[in-house]
Amino acid sequence: MKQLLLKIIRYNLILIPFLSFTQTDSVNNLDTILIQKEIMMKLTGEKPINENIYITQRASPEERKLTADYLSNYLSKIGWKVENHHYKTTNGNLFLDLFLQPMNGVNVSAILPATTKSKEYILFGSHYDSERNCPGAIDNATGVTLSLTIAYKLMQLKTRNKNFIVVLFDQEEDGTVGSKAYAKMLKNSGKEIHSIHTIDMMGWDDDNNLGIEIELPSPILKNLYQRNAQKYNIPIQVTKIGSSDHQSFIDLGFNTLGITEEYAKRDTTPYIHTNMDTYDTVNFEYLASSTEFIFQIFKSLVQ
Ligand SMILES: [Zn+2]
């Protein structure tokens, strides 16, 4: 009986996220919230991420690997072509490299081709690692969950005149090591990049205004987000904060912005980088609203 029950639970856990999406073309906020809660629980140790393995942080090489495998499988199941980026970086100095291990990691990356011929790519993503001894629910399981949900919604669009790349970065908490390595690789690839949108922390909204912050946006992206914020009645604040993955791409001259909760206005999780950054502190209505807002912007860029 217990075996059967386990089987039913496992079967449903796999199918629920996809069934909810396939029933209707447009995903409403309630569906989004159910799907996002499911992903968030796996990333924060509320539910097993794989078989019966629970992860309470995403900081050690083992936990990061379990997370990367889960994310790769998710993207592959929803129809994206997974092409993960493995990197190894030096400590910046040959002498240090003799004593310290080089940094190893995996940026989970996948491609969704345009439905018409296009050389242009829109890239979006979020870091999946967490600070040590921290479940990293808001920082940054929320950003990862938002990115996965948008990946699914984009796949459902009948037409897209640009390609998409989603990247879930490793080792942001170790000095944006993952995104720096990725940005360098991207620059060398010579790919035509339309724009880059990175999301870090999207789960706290104490004043319930659904407001967001955009960080160091290029003038074009600033205008794009502000126009849409007005259209959807989302309060938006522009700041010059560069302490996340967007900075890695700005440094190499990409058309980039960072997106987050209202950090500069202090409407942001007080539990950042502590063991209290837990699943139960996440505002899921806010996460779903921000997901829909960013999705609508991406949609407008490809139709
Ligand atoms: Zn973060």
Structure description:
- The protein has 303 residues and is α/β, with parallel strands linked by helices.
- It has helices at 2-22, 29-43, 61-77, 94-99, 137-156, 177-189, 219-232, 245-250, 284-302; strands at residues 81-82, 85-89, 103-112, 120-127, 163-169, 192-199, 212-215, 236-239, 256-260.
- It has one domain (2-88, 103-302): Aminopeptidase.
- The protein has nine helices and nine strands.
- Strands 1, 2, 3, 4, 5, 6, 7, 8 and 9 form a nine-stranded mixed β-sheet that branches.
- Residues 1-26 have low confidence and may be disordered.
- The protein binds zinc ion.
- The site of zinc ion has 7 residues, from α5.
- Zinc ion binds at residues 127, 139-140, 172, 200-201, 244.
Highlighted features:
Aminopeptidase; disordered N terminus; 303 residues; binds zinc ion; alpha/beta; 43% helix; 9-stranded mixed β-sheet
Can you summarize this structure?
With 303 residues, the chain is α/β, with parallel strands linked by helices. It has nine helices and nine strands. The chain has one domain (2-88, 103-302): Aminopeptidase (3-Layer(aba) Sandwich), CATH 3.40.630.10.
Quickly count the domains: 1
CATH superfamily: Zn peptidases
Q: What share of residues are in beta strands?
A: 15-25%
Question: Ligands in the structure?
Answer: zinc ion
Share of helical residues: 40-55%
Tally of DSSP β-strands: 9
* Structural class by secondary-structure content: alpha/beta
Number of helices: 9
Stretches where pLDDT is under 50 for at least 5 consecutive residues are 1-26
- Overall morphology: globular
CATH fold label: Aminopeptidase
The biggest beta sheet reads: 9 strands, mixed
